[in-house]
Sequence to fold (195 residues):
Amino acid sequence: MLTKFTASLSVEIAVPEQPIPIQHYLRQPQRLVNALVDQKRIRQLSEEVFRLKMRPLSFMSLSIQPTVDMRVWAESNGTIYLRSVGCEILGFEYINQRFSLNLRGYLSPYQSKTGTRLEGKADLEVQVDLPPPFSLTPKPILETTGNGLLKSVLLTVKQRLLHHLLADYRQWVISQTQEECFGKDDTQLPILNTD
Fold:
């Protein structure tokens, strides 16, 4: 029985004023990926594509662990986009062959009267042909459970974004400003002549 689950989530974040605007930080998509996902669960496949090993998901009596390949890229205005480009369910060949995951999202900076804000949205859709024991479960129960599971995945991502992104941005600004201070050519300092 082919079943579709969906979830959407929006986010809006006030960005504290820093010496370097957040648009510069957002032009480095790998930093966003590192802020969203524990680094032990990420493998960079190319400049824009990352393999994310998700935490195990429990759906009714089934536990699965998807691995999702995500393309993450930035526009010159600092808007970051992400799209899933592949997915695999390890250990469950039946479900793996009958499972598709589609994740689309963006995070964009904009100026308001009160300062810079980030706003974004993520849409997650899963289609799966469930094996026979689940096909006996009424479809509304399956959909409610599955939609709730996807919503919890997006809420987890939102919490990581809220807690880790601004902290990483702050650290990045500190490292960039220190490089500017210490990176200057100090051979131009005047030397006092003691003669």
